[in-house]
Specification:
D-Maltodextrin-Binding Protein, domain 2, globular, alpha+beta, single chain
Length: 341
């Protein structure tokens, strides 16, 4: 077949479309999650995390190279499909997934989230090694990565020609991190929400107010009174369960912030929320005095279990909520949870 210039253009454009094509992930589970937090969200930016409420919210919106399993606490793949560590422990080579995208946002061309590449991590870690009053988490990073302290002292990304030598994008799918000295904590530090990938386009448009991520949920920001946060299922999220079903299971979630315990208990009883975490045992005892029937078999409405954060605390959970986990890091894997219909 003779390839005319017209056909050649079609082939080129078709190839481009295929390269950037995304397919909406089916969701046979669906439903809505809701819970309360006693604290408020001070930031949506990973590098600015200073307290647990913001950290837990950011963990729903962003992802990093690796993650910790909410049950075993072992490090497992996330945006990195696999990695290799050199024999001397000074070089980590991460192989990135090819099916992970940033959330849709006007900061991208045509408002469409693009594929994540190794260069995104070079930018993210360079930003993490840049002095700024909003960067609260640089110290551990610059103490570990080769050349990071010098990069920081020169002004980070704000200094013309300044390059972070210890983080290298070999190509779009291969990221290399070089260390000053071997660190058994590196993978755990990379699993922290602080190390989540940030799009350069998002930072250039919004600065430290960016909340464009690539996690299981996206958000449009806080309510006008800063008391409520809505999360929405990202339909192009890459992670699946063992049966091949894409996460997250829920279509959406609502977080009610700065909520006193008494109000949370009322919301739990009325079905507005599905769980309360870290409830003092003394407060649970008071609640049980007049509501013991709600916890009794064979069909309990609620289940109480010891909190993994402190043994003198309890988590109270709706019996309809599935895949709820508690751990001593305060992680909240909403992407795995759903309400039984």
């Amino acid at each position: 077949m003779k390839i005319t210039p017209y056909i050649l253009l079609l082939l080129i454009f078709a190839g481009c479309d295929s390269e950037n094509s995304r397919t909406v992930n089916p969701n046979p589970v669906g439903g809505h999650l809701s819970y309360t937090e006693r604290g408020i969200v001070n930031t949506f930016f990973p590098h600015s995390i200073t307290e647990i409420t913001s950290s837990r919210v950011i963990d729903q919106i962003y992802d990093g190279l690796v993650m910790q399993d909410p049950v075993s606490m072992e490090v497992r793949p996330s945006l990195s499909a696999s990695w290799k560590i050199s024999g001397d422990g000074l070089e980590y080579r991460f192989n990135l997934r090819s099916d992970a995208y940033f959330h849709d946002d006007p900061c991208f061309a045509k408002g469409r989230g693009r594929k994540i590449t190794a260069s995104d991590f070079v930018f993210t870690f360079s930003l993490l090694a840049t002095p700024d009053e909003n960067n609260k988490n640089y110290s551990t990073f610059i103490e570990t990565i080769e050349g990071a302290e010098e990069f920081y002292l020169k002004g980070g990304i704000n200094a013309k020609g300044n390059v972070l030598p210890g983080v290298i994008a070999e190509n779009d799918s291969t990221l290399i991190i070089k260390l000053k000295r071997p660190s058994g904590a590196l993978l755990y530090n990379l699993a922290n929400p602080v190390a989540s990938v940030v799009p350069k386009a998002g930072f250039e448009k919004y600065g430290y107010r960016n909340f464009v991520g690539c996690g299981p949920f996206y958000t449009k920001g806080l309510s006008a009174d800063n008391q409520t946060l809505k999360l929405y299922r990202f339909p192009y999220y890459y992670l699946k369960d063992n049966q091949g079903q894409y996460y997250p299971y829920a279509d959406s979630a609502t977080v009610y912030l700065a909520t006193p315990l008494a109000r949370s208990l009322g919301m739990l009883q009325s079905g507005e929320i599905q769980f309360i975490q870290n409830m003092p045992s003394s407060e649970l005892a008071k609640f049980l005095e007049s509501n013991i029937n709600l916890f009794q078999s064979p069909d309990p409405v609620f289940i109480a279990q010891v909190s993994q954060v402190l043994p003198e605390w309890q988590d109270v959970i709706s019996s309809k909520l599935k895949n709820y986990y508690s751990n001593n890091l305060g992680m909240l894997p909403l992407y795995q949870m759903y309400v039984k219909k």
